Amino acid sequence: MSVDPVVWLPLSELLPDFAGLAEAVRNASGIIGLAIIAVYSFLIAFVLPLPSEVVLAPVRTGTLALGFPTYLEYAIVIVVSGAGKAAGSVFAFHIGQEAKESGPVVRFLRNSRFNIIEWSEKKSVELARQYGYVGLAMALSVPFFPDTISIYAFAVLERDYKKFALATFAGSVGRLLVTMGAFGVAFVFL
């Protein structure tokens, strides 16, 4: 009797298409729009390889329409997004803590084709190791750099949930402020 070989599918084929969620964020409106931004920010912290900068789009295009001055709407979106990403990061942190205790998971990641742990340690965890939680916040403040790898890699190294949440919140807020400062609020990519 023959056994069929194992077929490995790319992660993108296993997960639903989240491009529609990014589009929903771009068109977010009102209080429901803020909830969509929070959910999106939560998900990009641990599973979605999508840009977090897209949360600025509803204010830039005027679709958010909360009735506040633009600067206040930006502030609200930045805080909501930061809180969502911090919550998602704590969830990822918990998964990382569990993975740390699970030798087979870490061995699988170290032996994987892309060696995720080694790559992430060289890029973002180097900052975290040198500067601690401030390093994590700095790594997360870099626009267009995927958060998920930094968050998981750092989660395996550290243990303090509260400091981790604060660092990811600060990094998320920092990233959006850096994006606005570097590219202006008329950022075309969004």
TrEMBL record:
<protein>
    <submittedName>
        <fullName>YqaA family protein</fullName>
    </submittedName>
</protein>
<keyword id="KW-0472">Membrane</keyword>
<feature type="transmembrane region" description="Helical">
    <location>
        <begin position="131"/>
        <end position="157"/>
    </location>
</feature>
<dbReference type="InterPro" id="IPR032816">
    <property type="entry name" value="VTT_dom"/>
</dbReference>
<keyword id="KW-1133">Transmembrane helix</keyword>
<dbReference type="Pfam" id="PF09335">
    <property type="entry name" value="VTT_dom"/>
</dbReference>
<feature type="domain" description="VTT">
    <location>
        <begin position="51"/>
        <end position="180"/>
    </location>
</feature>
<feature type="transmembrane region" description="Helical">
    <location>
        <begin position="31"/>
        <end position="50"/>
    </location>
</feature>
<keyword id="KW-0812">Transmembrane</keyword>
<feature type="transmembrane region" description="Helical">
    <location>
        <begin position="71"/>
        <end position="95"/>
    </location>
</feature>
<feature type="transmembrane region" description="Helical">
    <location>
        <begin position="164"/>
        <end position="189"/>
    </location>
</feature>
